[in-house]
Amino acid sequence: MRGKIYFVGGGPGDPALIAMRGMELLRRAKTVLAPGFFKDTYKEHLAGKEVLEPFDYHHAELVARIDACLDRGDDAVFLVPGDLAVFSPVQSIIDYFGESAEVVPGVSTMNAASAALKRTFDLPGVSHSTIVTSPKTITGSPDSISDLSRHRSTMVLFMNNKPVEELVAELSEGYAPDTPVAVIYNVSLPGQEILMSRLSALAADVDHGRFRDEDVFKLVIVGGVLAATEDPSWWDRRKDTRDARHAAKKK
Ligand SMILES: C[S@@+](CC[C@H](N)C(=O)[O-])C[C@H]1O[C@@H](n2cnc3c(N)ncnc32)[C@H](O)[C@@H]1O
Q1: Which of 104, 133, 158, when mutated, tests ligand 1's pocket best, judged by the most ligand atoms within 8 Å of its CB?
Q2: Residue 156 neighbours by CB distance under 10 Å
Q3: pTM given for the model
């Protein structure tokens, strides 16, 4: 019987953050596609397996390697950085394998960043929406950070090599100068570091070389939620609303 390829959310780096189902599939797989630092962070889980760096191959070669594995009747695991839902360049491979492909969700870097900051991204009266975006990448899509900043919602930016002055200029189209900004490097990895700043101070606060280096993993989070406190009466309002709804149903 032909094997399957499982696209497993590998999380932000720490293997303790993979889902139990993903870990079980990884344990059973003979072939694993492990991009970037996963070869190191998952080292003990990859021992004795055929481990491929997916970005070493062009598309046709890569799917041929996976096809050969599935044709032998073996399963393969593709460790997807973070979670498939955001900025995952694997859609064409999932589509190629169709019914032979399955996806297991994972912890996105932005979930791990929220945990590291101990901050939710929405608070009543501060921001009810979260914009997840990234500066222009190899897709060539137009940058829309200036336009998006006008919503003044919480913004999560998966950063590549945009200079900090340019980023600040675009964000300043919408956000006030005193808007809190967090830069989080290497979430869940040994070098994890959090820099808290304000939009007007960000260019002075960051190490420009490190910020521009696309090999340095970082997220930028912008918005009032980073510093706001939640009015505890919202808890009581939620409880009262729920109690009223249940009482109405019982009538
Ligand atoms: C191609 S995207 C992958 C996003 C992934 N699908 C997710 O759910 O987090 C790669 C970008 O994610 C961010 N990233 C990935 N791992 C990270 C980490 N451990 N710490 C901070 N940022 C990370 C960086 O912005 C990096 O440029």
Answers
A1: 158
A2: 22
A3: 0.94
